[in-house]
Amino acid sequence: MTTTPNTARVMPDIAAEADAGNAGRLDWVGMDEIAVPVRLAGGHGDIVQSPARVAAHVNLKRADVRGIHMSRLYLHVDRHLSSEPLTPCSLRRLLRDFLESHADLSDRARISVRFDHMVRRPALASDNSGWKTYPVVINASMQDGAFAFELETEVLYSSTCPCSAALARQLIQEQFEADFGKDRPLDRGAVLEWLGSEAGIRATPHSQRSSARVRVRLASAFEFPIIDLIDLVENALQTPVQTAVKREDEQAFALLNGQNLMFCEDAARRMQRALDGDERIVDFWLRAAHLESLHPHDAVAYATKGVEGGYTADSAR
């Protein structure tokens, strides 16, 4: 029987070898699309787990070193994100570990965590409820001991065109004049029947599914206010898309659309006002996009908080 001595083998480390003919500092080096589960605190004290994709990077400040220790980044990501809830504090510790494991190579680190966050939402009028998925991106960085992070999400909503609504009302008025001329006495029952008919309400305004993308920089916090941010945007817009829908829910949704006619400019200003009023948000960037049913193109509007040195309209197009 042959036995193998329990001795450590010296293995080549090509990444540590200098390549004098191909030297240079690099802004960022690392890995994209790392698959890992993330755990977040739910709205009722529970922990929600979601599959995520992570990008982990450090800079390479030494021109004479060929590469970084990518396996160290991967193992740090796996250990931190798999074992504890995702919070600003946990990301700060993770980035600190990135830099400590590359102390001789790097002085900047960053991470991006991308996942879908599922939330159960009640119907507008019935007793039903259903799941909605919100895409979330959390970016964090560390440089010279300074930690910064931002949160981005997207909310889908319905937008009904104010111009189209006005044009539809005009057509309805004209039809009313044609069907109930000034010389014809009005019969309340006949008018009610007319209002409930397709012949009477002969035009409807165009509406469409629309998208609100919001990116925020937050003051120091212990948790990521994902649900709070989503609620803030949905409450500002008033017409978020629905999940479980019975007829009474659809009617309530139609009422909300009629009460909240908006161009993309209106939607952007609604969100701008709501985000401006939240003291946790130190800066923001937003985009309202109406995926027009009238046109083959989209109507879009951008807004920022206007912080000096902060986001601009072109920050994340």
In a few lines, what is going on in this structure?
The protein is an alpha+beta fold and about 325 residues long.
Lay out the secondary structure:
Elements: E1 26-41, E2 47-60, H1 70-83, H2 88-100, E3 108-122, E4 129-143, E5 146-160, H3 162-179, H4 188-195, E6 207-218, H5 226-237, H6 247-259, H7 264-276, E7 281-290, E8 299-304
Helix pairs in contact: 1-2, 5-7
What are its keywords?
317 residues; alpha+beta; Urate Oxidase; 2 domains; 29% helix
Q: Would you kindly provide a written description of the structure presented here, covering whatever features stand out?
A:
This is GTP cyclohydrolase FolE2. Pathway: Cofactor biosynthesis; 7,8-dihydroneopterin triphosphate biosynthesis; 7,8-dihydroneopterin triphosphate from GTP: step 1/1. Helix content is 29%, strand content 32%. With 317 residues, it is of the alpha+beta class. The protein has two domains: 24-161 and 206-304, Urate Oxidase; 163-195. The chain has an eight-stranded antiparallel sheet with strand order 1-2-3-4-5-6-7-8. The longest helix is centred in the middle third of the chain and has 18 residues, at 162-179. The radius of gyration is 28 Å and the shape is elongated. The model has no long low-confidence stretch (mean pLDDT 92).
